[in-house]
Amino acid sequence: MAIPGTAPFGSKTLPQALVAVARRKPGALFLRVVDPRAPEAPPRQLTFGDFERAVRRAVAFLRGRGVGAGDRLLFFAENGAEWQALSLAAQALKAEPAAIFAQLGGEQAAAIGLRVKPRLLVVSDAAQWSKLSGAAGALAAAGLATVVAREPLAAGALPPGVAAVSYGEIFEGAAPELSPAELDALVAGGDGEDPFLLLFTSGTTGRPKGVRLPQRAMLRAIEDGRASTAVTEEDDGLHFLPFGHVAGHDQFMLALAQGHRLILVARREDVPRGLALGPTYLFSVPLLYERIRGEVEARLARLPRWARPLGRRLAPRAVRRKLGGRVRGLFSGGAGAAPGLETFFEELGLPFVELYGMTETAGLISSNLFSGRRVPGSAGHLSSVVEARLEPDGELCVRGGTLMTGYLDPEDEEGAFTADGYFRTGDLARFAEDGTLHVEGRKKSLLVLSTGKKLSPEPIEQVLASTPPFSGAVLLGDGRPFVAAALFVPPAELERLGAAGRDPAVELLEQARAALAGFSEYEKPKRVLIIPGSLDQHPALVTPTLKVKRDAFLRWAAAQVEALYAPARS
Prior knowledge:
It comes from Anaeromyxobacter diazotrophicus. This is AMP-dependent synthetase/ligase domain-containing protein. It contains 19 helices and 26 strands. The protein is α/β, with parallel strands linked by helices and about 575 residues long.
């Protein structure tokens, strides 16, 4: 779907944007890379010129392996500078990079790999490759010729005819490389409809869909992302969202095209190391911010009542110190923020900007800063390159410059678009009188009670998950006479209630209903299922971005859910 218009950042493609910034400020710092394998080591530093040279080497390598227009690469690896250098090199050659989450299990990764049919595969290490070993022969038969890893894979680990190559062979020493002039000439022929990336949806309601994003979609998304976030060339962003998620690319490509710095962290547990380097902004899914708020509120609750006013006055300083001391803004995307989260950080003096989008729209549909003001509880105003309308049932449909080319598999296209080219987002939404967009839940996750009442579970789950002591929640009730909730609770809290002689189910139901005071009576749970621990301790029940896989949860807890709704309890 070709979209007319001027080229954002003066470029038609991201490789062109890379060349432009590398020629403009080659010696300026671009990346500080935190090495997960060396906890005590300082970050590795790369200038824009260093990174552009890595891309020139990656182009030479890919050409040498026969990669060209129409070929696909598959990235099944942790974040890293090399990851993006190889991806941009593939884009310069008009090949199509594809990415999946590094945390995926072998079965799901292999299934996607066989749909992608890559000529070249990038993995983190031998352990990552071992997840795919059962499908190695099938991948080779489908065209896999090369496996790239940080360190050389052992001889005999790959099928016959498949070569193993290490990062060092591509990026270090006397590795071949294009000259700057050769890269300039190569990228000059790029077009906005060239492939940028093939990404996969989270699969909360079924098989992940392959989303084919063109260059113009990402460029337009980051152009409006720059306007919404007000990030400048002087900023240092903390980057830890995975490259399997579109938001990870939004942040990286904005920094690349604009010319600002990034602190690159591959693993969530290394985020404190990144924060210690003093970022000026964070971009995260809401979970990180919810945990920070939970920690602050828990500390205040432990103080004597007389000391709490002082604790609240000191909280802004403590939070800023925890975030590295230089943060001036918090950006949130990938999921809806819980009610009150924006207000909490705004009261601490930290602007909180929520962006809304999805993989199919290159991660951007609306933002809270397009209107020049923030509206807590909303997804803000539409991007300047997005048109939107609501279907009679409330489903949001969009079209515009950030929209994908289409899906990898033709069967996924069925019903995805309206007759006049609007994409059906699957989100239920409304527009307020001030023009702000309010997203109210997923159409497919709508709960329809046997009484005929309908409700979206996500807003209720967000409130519960952000209310101590709950660490996660799944709302139940589809086809049932009333709403119930599965509540994930820290074992220490359950032990505390038991030691006090109180029934956890009764006590926690009361707390849950109190937290939902602003909701209608039929939306509040009448029964609760208490599950010790946290939702993210069960990888099979959540996506890599920690969204609930509702069908998977209902299968996992089928017997307990049935007991919850037994006639004797209704």
